[in-house]
Design a protein that fits this description.
It is globular and about 70 Å long. Helix content is about 35%, strand content about 25%. With about 400 residues, it is of the alpha/beta class. It has two domains: about 110 residues, Urease, subunit C, domain 1; about 290 residues, Metal-dependent hydrolases (TIM Barrel). Strands 1, 2, 3, 4, 5, 14, 15 and 16 form an eight-stranded mixed sheet that branches. Strands 6-7-8-9-10-11-12-13 form an eight-stranded parallel sheet. The protein binds N-(iminomethyl)-L-glutamic acid and fe (iii) ion (FE). The site of N-(iminomethyl)-L-glutamic acid has 13 residues, from helix 3.
Amino acid sequence: MDLLLKNIGLLATPTGIDARRGKAQGEITLRSHAAVGIHKGRIVFVDHTNNSAVAEHTLDCAGKLVTPGLVDCHTHLVFGGWRQHEMKQKFAGVPYLEILKAGGGILNTVKATRSASEEDLFQKAQTLLREMLYYGTTTCEAKSGYGLELETELKQLRVIRRLNKAGPVELAATFMGAHAIPEEYASDREGYINLVCEEILPRAARENLAEFCDVFCDEGVFTPEESARVLKRASDLGLGLKAHADEISPVEGAEMAAECGCISAEHLIAASDAGIMAMAEKNVIAALLPATSFWLGKPYARACEMIRKNVPVAVATDFNPGSCPCLNLQFAMSLACLKYRLTPAEALTSVTLNGAAAIRRAESLGSVEPGKQADLIIWDAPDLDYIFYRCGSNLAQTIIKKGDIICRN
Ligand code: NIG
Ligand code: FE
């Protein structure tokens, strides 16, 4: 055995290889005085700490809390520039969509991303990813969508692939060409959707650059019909489906996501009752983004109601330069408790097993069980409640990925 974690005060983890929903989302395993054995990057046993296993290396957890590594299942990690100058407009009450219509917002970042070199984008994203790791994110999804043209969309996706290869944080790549209509297609939306469906998506799929496809289905962006067209094409090309849905207005994006067979629907601040029902029926994961609500001063998605209605809930950062410049998943976890009113157990599941399920990694990630990949965090905390209670501090102390210690804070 390569590594033995002993003297774990409390091991807190969901269990299983699928998203947990309804009551099960809050039913986690809590084990005091535990030990975890790791061999060749995998967990080989979870046992009492006083077992006599012999390992090459032993890590004394000093009675602290251990959980699975955090999975941030929704980020826009790769982009050029920042947008701090838009804060003034935002705080003066100019709505997000109006900033976008005036060529700002996403389109601002599109300009900066088009003009950045692949190397610059890589260096910048790698620095940001290191910061995410420092807060405990061991796996993260990352989207394109700041190119809105063939070359730049592929450039973003190549950066994601390089980051994943470079490690240690593992990435899942999502193509999001349908993030906005670029300025050059302002009077020809159908032309842009054709370009996405007939040129960019097939190239991204052919070059194996994306595992998932996401669309921004909302007021002023893509209609449910347009979104469904892009997703159908992506599905034919073998990609898994996701949708930013009903963030701004209830446009029946959640219904569309369920109808199209999406793995997850994101945001959902304005999702209707019927949309939530449809998601429960089709077992679509709700990827909720409380730090975006916080940053934009918007209402919070109805997370508890979704759990009651049997929708599996994941929580992510939505890290991006416009609506959530915060990449700290621990902050989103605290908001999930303080604002959504999830229990600490429900919130833990939302950023581990359910986050992993939202990127189809629940068979190997998201829980501390024999057979799973050894991604774990030792927290500077005596119990699970404590990490939600100490909002604003970074309590991730030792971070382990595939059995290697990759960060000590
Ligand atoms: O998830 N809502 C759509 N897209 C991003 C915002 C992107 C941006 O403003 O740059 C989001 O919040
Ligand atoms: Fe997003």
